[in-house]
C-alpha cells in the first residue's frame, strides 16, 4: 500500500522542482499549517479502496487532481471569457482584464464568425459583434491581439466549426510577429460533437466535421506542441438542459469518440492524448459538481489506460477548464448572481479545475459590463487568496457523502457511456436523435419542477420583489457592422488576389482528396482569405447540415 | 366563422444564427401540453421563412426566441413582412435575453408580449389563451 510519505518524497517533490510552492502563508487564520495532503492515514482509518479509487494527486487515477502539488504551487488559470463588438473594443477589454490580474485570455466570437460567415454576409445582419467579437480575416485577428505578448499569455478561443481557420489566423499573427509556435500555449474549443448534441453551431455534417477536428490532432502536436487543440465541452450540454450526470457521460463519450477517430487515422494515442483538454459547467448543486470533476478524471484515466492502451501518464490526466452556470443566473434580483457565482466557483476549485471563468452577475440581461466582469474576476481572487481552500490539495476528499457521490456519478455515467457505445457511438446517437430527445426531456422536467416549486429559485419562484432592481447593462454599438464591412472591403482590395485564389484552391484540393487541411488553412490565413471564403470552399466540398426540428 | 373553442395554433421560431434552443423547445412543449397546436420551425430561420410558414400554417400567433442580441432586427423584419403580406392579424410575441430598455421599443413595433428569463411557461399559456380569442372576437371571427 502506497504511503503518503512516499508520495510526498516522490510525486510532490518532483512537482515542486518544476513549480515551487507559492510564496504565501499556507496557514489558517489561527496559524495552523495544513500539510499539502490528507489521506486516511492522517485520521487513522483504513480505506482498502483508497489507491484504486482515489489515489494521490498527480498520479493515476487522478481523482484527487492532475498535478502533484496543485494549487499549493500554481493556482488555476483565471480565464475570463470576453469579446464583443470590433477587434479594437475587445482588445481594449483584454488589456483591462490582464491589468486587473487575469492570467489567461479567452475569446468570445460573434455568431457570424462561429457560423463561418463574414461580417458583411446577408445572414450576419443584426448579429455582428453582438455576442462576441467579429473576426472575418487576419486583419481582425491582428488588431485583436495588438500589443499582447503571445508567448507570455495563453489564449483560449471558443470556436468550433471554423476552428481550423481561426486557429490558423492566430498562428499567422504569431508568425508575422516573429513568435515561436513551439512556445505558444492556448486552446481552441474545436469540439464539434457537442455542437450537434447541444449548442448547434455546426456547419458541415458530422463526419467531415470530425475529420477536420482530427486534422488538428495530427498536425497540432508536431507544429504547436504546447497547444490544446481541443477542449471537449460539457458546458453547452449542461446549459442546453442536461443533468450533471448526462453532462459527465456525454462529454467523456465525445472525448472517446475523438480518440477512436484519431486511432482510426493511425495516430499514436500517446502523441495526441496529452493535448486533449476538457470544459465543464458548474451549477448550484455544490457536492454534485465537485463529485463530477473527480469522477470525470477517474473515468478518463481508467478508460485511456485500459481501453485505449495509452502508456503516457499525461494521456490519462484529464485537465479541465470550468465555467459557472450561465443558465443558473436570474434576470430577477441580478445581484444575487454574485452569490451563485461564488458558490459555483468554489465548487469548481474544490473539484480541482485547472482553469476557471466566472460569470458576471448581469449575464441573464446582456453581455457583461466592465464592472460586472471585474467583480466576477475578483470573486475568483477572493476564493484563491482569502478562503484558505488552496492550503491543502482536494480538501473534501474522504467526506463520506462526496466519495459516495463521486462513485455514484461514475457508475451512472459509465452506464450511459456503455449505452452510447451499444448504439454505435456518438455520431450514430446524434443521427438517431438520442441527445435531442434526452435533452428535451431533462430540460422540460426541470422547468416543471421549478414551476411546481419543487425546486426553489430565489427571486424567481420564491422571495420575489415587488419592484425590480435595475442594473446598468452593456449595449453593443450598432456601428460595428459598418466598421467591419469597411475593413473587409479594404482587405479584399489590398491583398494579393492570386495568392488568395491559390490558397483557396489548395484548401479545396486537400478537402476533396482527404488530406490534412491545416497547412492550407495557415496559407489561407496568411494570404488574408476571409473566413467566409474558407468556409464556402468547405461548404462546397462537404455540404451543410440541417438538424431535424424536434420538440 | 371560426369557433372560439378551436385550438390555438402557434408557430415557435428561432430566427438568425443562434442555436440556443432550450427555451424555445420548453415553451413549445408547454404550449402543446396546454392543448395548443404548436409548430416549431427548427433553427436558423430567416424572417421570410418564418412569415411564410406562419401564413401557410394559418397560425394565430408567432413566438420568436432570441438570445443573441439581434432581437430588434428580427422582430422588426418579421413584423414588417407579416404586415406586408396581409397577416397583421397574427399575434407576434417572443422572449429571450432582451434588455428591459428594448421592451417598449418592441411593443411599439407591434410585438404583443415579451417574456424574459425566469418567466413561467404558465404565464405564456395564460397570455395566449387570453390574447388570441380576444383577437378572434375583435376580427368578428367568433
TrEMBL record, chain A:
Chaperone recorded as keyword: no
UniProt EC number: 5.4.99.2
Keyword list, A-Z: Isomerase
Record-level Gene Ontology MF annotations: cobalamin binding; methylmalonyl-CoA mutase activity
SUPFAM superfamilies hit by this protein: Cobalamin (vitamin B12)-dependent enzymes
Residues of the Methylmalonyl-CoA mutase alpha/beta chain catalytic domain: 28-543
Protein known as: Methylmalonyl-CoA mutase
Pfam families linked: MM_CoA_mutase
InterPro entries assigned: Cbl-dep_enz_cat, MeMalonylCoA_mutase_a/b_cat, MMCoA_mutase_a_cat
Keyword Isomerase listed: yes
From TrEMBL, chain B:
InterPro entries: Acid_CoA_mut_C, Cobalamin-bd, Cobalamin-bd_sf
GO MF term set: cobalamin binding; metal ion binding; methylmalonyl-CoA mutase activity
Keyword Isomerase: yes
Name by which UniProt lists this protein: Methylmalonyl-CoA mutase
Class of enzymatic activity (EC top level): isomerase
Annotated B12-binding domain residues: 7-135
UniProt EC number: 5.4.99.2
Pfam families in the record: B12-binding
CDD domains the record matches: MM_CoA_mut_B12_BD
Known cofactor(s): adenosylcob(III)alamin
Record key words, sorted: Cobalamin, Cobalt, Isomerase, Metal-binding
